[in-house]
Structures are given as C-alpha cells and as structure tokens.
Amino acid sequence: MVDQLVVKRLTTEDLSIELVELDGDELHERSEWIPISSWINLIVKEAFITNHFKKKSVAFTTFMQEWESIFSMFKGDGKERSPLNDYPPLSIWYVTHENIKLRFLLTHGSKERLKREVKSAFETIYVLNKSRKSRVKSVLKTVFAQSDHIKYLRFIEDEWQVINPIFEESSRISRKYLQENDYRIKKPWIVFQKNNLHQYKITNNNWVLEFDNLETLMLQPNDVAIYSSISDQNLNFALSFYNETILPRHKYYHGMFPHVEQQQEYFTYFQFIITSLIFAYTALEAFANICIPDNYSIEEEKQGIKTIYSKTGIERTFTLRDKFKRVLTEVLQTTEPSQEKWWSKFITLEKLRNEIIHTKQSSSDGRYSTLLSKNIFDMIKVHKTIISYYGHYINLNKPELLEEFPYQFGYDDVVAGLSDSPEFDSWTVDHKMHKAFFKAKGK
Fold it and tell me: What long-range pairs does 247-250 form, CB within 8 A, spacing at least 24?
C-alpha cells in the first residue's frame, strides 16, 4: 500500500525512495530497549533533509502530500499516548555523523499532529547537523545508549525530546516497588545490564535489628518519611478537633470557659499538635543532614582562630536555617532559600519548635495560644513544601541523592547503576558493590 501511495507516485520527482519489507525480528534485536517495530520505518538521509526538506522542493511538497494518506491510517481516538506504552505506528530513523542511530517515535494522533511531528523531526535533524550548540545535540551527548547505539526521541510540548532510557526504566521499577511496599521505606538499589536494560538487579535496603535477645530482619525505613508521617498523622488528629471545636466558635462566639471534659480534649489537641510540629521540624533536620556529603567541610575564622567543621561537626553545631542557607545552597546549587515564599513560615516553625524544646514558663501562654491559631496547620505543612523544593534541585544537580530522598514528595525516582559483568546473571548486589557503581559514575 505504501508502495502505491508514495513510492510509485514520486518516481518522476528528483527524489529517491526505496521500499523494503522486513519482519519485526529482522529490524530489531530482542535486547533493544524498545524492540517493538513500527508499521512503517522511514529512514532518512542528510541529502533529503538538506536538498528537499529545507529547500521545500517540489519533490518534498509532493512527498508530504502523498504521505497524508498514510497518516490517515494511524489516526487515533483523540487520546495522546506515550510511545513507550503503546507501539509507535511510525518511526523516523536517522544515523548521525557519530554513527548514533536516532529513532523518532511518532504517536497515534490526528493527521495534522502526525504531519507536525514529521516536519519537526526533519527540522530537528537539520539543526542537529548545522548547529554546534543545539539543545538536542547537548542532550544526546549525555544520554546512555546500549551497544546498538540507538537513542530515542518522543514528541512532547511541540518539540522532540531525547529519552533517557535508564531514567525511564528505573522510574518504572521504582514506581512498581513503591506500589508493592510501604512508602516509608528507603528506595531500592537498581543495577542494569549495560547492553540489555531489560535485565536488572533490584536489592532492598535491609537491616537486622537486635533487641532483647531477638533479631529482626526488615526493610530499612527512610528517616525523613517516618518523621513526616508522624507529623501528618498527628496533624490530622489535631485538625479534627480544630474543625469540630474551634471553628464553630468563630461563627458563633461562645464558650469562653469550656467545661472540664472539653478541656481534656484541648489537652489532647495540644499533644497532637506539639508532636506534629516537632516531627515536622525533625523531618527537615534529618533531610538536611542527608544532603551533606561525607567529605564536605566548612572553614570559619573568629578572632584569628580557624575552625574546620566536618559533616559531623556541621550536623551537631549548625542550626537548621544555617544548613539551608550556607550548606545546601552550595551543595545542591539552589536559589537563596530566604527569598522563597516558604521561608517566613519555616522561621516561625523553627522559633516555635525551639520554644517548645527549651520551654520557658514565662512565655507559655503565648506559645499555647499560637498552637490554637488557624495558621499553625500551614506552618507545620510547610515542611513538605521545603523538602519538595530541595527535591527539585537534587533531581537537577545531584541526582545520586534521589536514593536517599523519601517517597511521595514528588521525586520517587532513583539513579540506577550499570554493569557489563559477564557474571551479571549470577551475582547479587550488595552495599559495597552499589557504592562502587556510584563512585564510577561520578568520574
């Protein structure tokens, strides 16, 4: 059908088209990351891009007109699908000067969308060849490819973007891992076989807890997730009391002197809200300490005396706000945290937490009054905003820390390792081997 619609009608034009019918197994290896064959694979050469596409030759215009009939075959149901989850009806292939095979995965969509994707693919190839600083060229240099040298692109937000196969696979595995386990656990270790990403090893973070002559082997929790969960749970209990007891007083002012039973509920509320607040702050402390590299240090000089603080010294000596402003800003390359919208709430949270931990009887009435204010809930919830804020910069500038980043804060992915070991099928991943992978990736 393609031969009738396109090839034969263009034989008189200044354009060479060759049609080859192949079985899917002839075109794709099983170890290929996306071994699914498209119905049609359009292999283009640089001469076509330069002499026909860019010059908008008569042959190219005719070519696109005839291909509209082909596009109609792939018209979808109006729903956009990822080419990673659904077979791509059409793939455009191009081999770069560096012998990298680019596969543009087109989607099931309207005829107009497919035309837009095809033309955009041709434009991407042209820019790739003509520009030294193109965005796609920069990304292609950093994205992993198996020994088949194939790199994949998909059409997102009206442009072709290079797919990172390790990221896609590790994300898929991590999401599945989360579905099968408690969200408060530490993320697993994942290592892929270098030339076949369909083969991988996944290892839990296990530890043995010894107590009272007992040993318990279990998954290791993520401290940040545990503390944040404690905060959330207690905040929900406190919020129920607030909605049932405090809010009605704003609408119908009464009850300046609550009866004894109601005062007991107030005391229980104080327990919940104080616990929530302390653990929200503790979650932030645990998170900040996780982000400090083992070999990181800060040097200070006061009155001619120099003091060097190691990671341990920073954890013990620096306030949390100093860790955010002085340490994490440098380590994660963030913006100035004090300029963020959440900063003022964090400062209030820190101040109230310190007042609770270092209790002064003279200020108790003001402290407990604050605990009853409507702003207390947003003040406590801000800890999740802060963790997600830093998650963005971890994902951007220090992705190896994603392994320590808690689940359900917007960055559930992990950075996996690669192995070309001939014994890959037989060995298991341990902590030492996993760290060696990360050390090698950092070089």
Answer: none
